[in-house]
Write a structure and sequence with these properties.
This protein is α+β, with helices and mostly antiparallel strands. The chain has a domain of 60 residues: D-amino Acid Aminotransferase, Chain A, domain 1 (2-Layer Sandwich).
Length: 105
């Protein structure tokens, strides 16, 4: 089974999944992730995972807009028994912009 990523509201084959070059998770590791185990198509201990994920998001003040119900419903079709990971990062819009000219030294 090919690896699948959920990016910007869409499931994609892993080789087609991309993030914006200015995504703060990509640039600064400004993100939170939770590794999940799936057995018989069900996420093991999902409540504990969701609680830990939301606690971590709050700890770094990452505004995400997800509810626990939305995350529960976002799982790839026919998920086999294998590790999964939820990763939530700040969007490129959250990145500060340089507004003046940049000059060396």
């Amino acid at each position: 089974m090919p690896e699948i990523a959920y990016v910007n509201g869409e499931f994609l084959p892993l080789d087609r999944a991309t993030v914006h070059v200015e995504d703060r998770g990509f640039q600064f590791a400004d993100a939170v992730y939770e590794v999940l185990r799936v057995y018989a198509g069900q996420i093991f201990a999902i409540n504990a995972h969701l609680e830990r994920l939301f606690r971590s998001l709050e700890a770094i003040d990452l505004q995400h807009g997800f509810t626990t119900g939305q995350l529960r419903s976002r799982k790839p079709p026919a998920a086999p028994a294998s590790p999964r990971r939820w990763s939530i990062s700040r969007s490129p819009a959250a990145a500060p912009r340089v507004t003046g000219p940049c000059r060396p030294g």
